[in-house]
Amino acid sequence: MLASCLLRRVVFLVPLIFVVVLLTMEPIKADEEAGTTIPAESRPCVDCHAFEFMQRALQDLKKTAYNLDTRTETLLLQVEKRTLCDCVTADTLN
Questions:
Q1: From CA 93, how far away is CA 3, in angstroms rounded?
Q2: What span is annotated as the signal peptide, if there is one (predicted)?
């Protein structure tokens, strides 16, 4: 009986303590700065870096597209060659 009474008090007091602590804490204000501000003169040019990155990505895409195009063309030529070879062998057998 004593244990159930203590358990009820703990179940009631723990959330109550949390609520009291939350109410007494000072809220964080949004206007407080989280760190130091770097002056604009010493910051890297983000637009320039983004442009360079996009240029490199575009070059890589062009290179990949060219490789895929030449590979597709090679495969198509191989298929046509096989088809012609099959036709020639079938004609010579008949």
A1: 99
A2: 1-30
Is the overall model pTM greater than 0.90, yes or no? no
Distances (CA, A) of 7 to 12, 13, 15, 34, 42: 9, 10, 13, 42, 61
N residues, the chain: 94
Q: Per-residue DSSP letters for 3-37?
A: HHHHHHHHHHHHHHHHHHHHHHSPPPPTTS-SSPP
Rounded CA gap, 65 and 56, in Å? 14
C-alpha 85/C-alpha 76 separation (Å) is: 14
Give pLDDT tens digits for 70-90. Answer: 999 999 999 888 888 777 666
Secondary structure of 58-76 in HEC code, one letter for each residue: HHHHHHHHHHHHHHHHHHH
In angstroms, the CA 61 to CA 34 distance is 40
- The angle formed by the CA atoms of residues 61, 63 and 65, to the nearest 5 degrees, is 65
